[in-house]
Amino acid sequence: IAGITQAPTSQILAAGRRMTLRCTQDMRHNAMYWYRQDLGLGLRLIHYSNTAGTTGKGEVPDGYSVSRANTDDFPLTLASAVPSQTSVYFCASSVGNTGELFFGEGSRLTVL
Amino acid sequence: GQNIDQPTEMTATEGAIVQINCTYQTSGFNGLFWYQQHAGEAPTFLSYNVLDGLEEKGRFSSFLSRSKGYSYLLLKELQMKDSASYLCAVMDSNYQLIWGAGTKLIIKP
C-alpha cells in the first residue's frame, strides 16, 4: 500500500540522548515535511524539503536537523533530546506546494 | 503575526448539521484547507478553497470569504464516525501552511 511510513511509532528517551525518527514515502512526492503536534496548539513545521538535496527551516527548527539524500527518505534527528521535545511528530509529503499533504501515522516521543 | 482561530470544541447530535468556523490573518493567501484527524491518528485532507464560495463534496462542504478572512466547514447528516478534530490551515505567501489548533467535534446519539 502506497504511503508514508514512520518509525518508531513510540519511544521513551532519556534527556541528552540522540534520536533519529525515520520517514519513508513511496509516492515519489518531491516535497516532504516534519511537524510536531502538541495539545492545544496547531501543527508546527520543524523542517521541510522541497526536493531531494534541499532542506529548509520551519517555524520551530531549533534542536532538530534533517537530511534529504534521496526522494523517498527524510529522517529527523534530535541531537541531544530535551523534555520540551516531548510531542507527537508527523512526517508528511506532497506533490509540490499544493497544500494537500499526506501524513504518516506519527511518532510519539517522550523525553524524560 | 499570523493567526488561525477556530473553536476548541463543539458538540452535535447524530443526523444533524454542524458548522465549524475558521477565521484567519496571514501574510498572503494561497488557499485554505480543511483536514480531519481522528484521535490517535494522522490528519487526512478534506477540502481546499482558493476562490470565494462554497465547495461541496458529499456530506461535507467548505465555504470561503477572502475579504472577511473567514471559512467554515459544514457537515450534514452527522454520523458517529464524524467524531474527530477538524483542522483549518491557510497557505501563506511563502507557500507554507499555517495551522489552527483544531476543533474537536463530539457527536452524541
Describe what this molecule looks like in 3D.
The complex is a heterodimer of chains A (112) and B (109). Chain A has 112 residues and is mainly β. Helix content of chain A is 0%, strand content 46%. Chain A has no helices and eleven strands. In chain A, strands 2, 4, 5, 6, 9, 10 and 11 form a seven-stranded mixed β-sheet that branches. In chain A, strands 1-3-8-7 form a four-stranded antiparallel β-sheet, with no helix packed on it. In chain A, strand 5 and strand 6 (56-57) form a beta hairpin. By secondary structure, chain B is mainly beta. In chain B, strands 2, 4, 5, 9, 10 and 11 form a six-stranded mixed β-sheet that branches. In chain B, a hairpin with a 6-residue loop joins strand 4 and strand 5. The mean pLDDT of chain B is 96. Classes of the chains: A mainly beta (112), B mainly beta (109). Chains A and B meet through strand 5 and strand 10 of A and strand 5, strand 9 and strand 10 of B.
What are the SSEs and their pairings?
The complex is a heterodimer of chains A (112) and B (109).
Chain A: E1 4-7, E2 10-13, E3 19-25, E4 31-37, E5 44-49, E6 56-57, E7 64-66, E8 76-78, E9 87-94, E10 102-103, E11 107-111
Parallel strand pairs in A: 2-11
Antiparallel strand pairs in A: 1-3, 3-8, 4-5, 4-9, 5-6, 7-8, 9-10, 9-11
Chain B: E1 3-5, E2 9-13, E3 18-25, E4 32-37, E5 44-49, E6 53-57, E7 60-65, E8 70-75, E9 84-91, E10 97-99, E11 103-108
Parallel strand pairs in B: 2-11
Antiparallel strand pairs in B: 1-3, 3-8, 4-5, 4-9, 6-7, 7-8, 9-10, 9-11
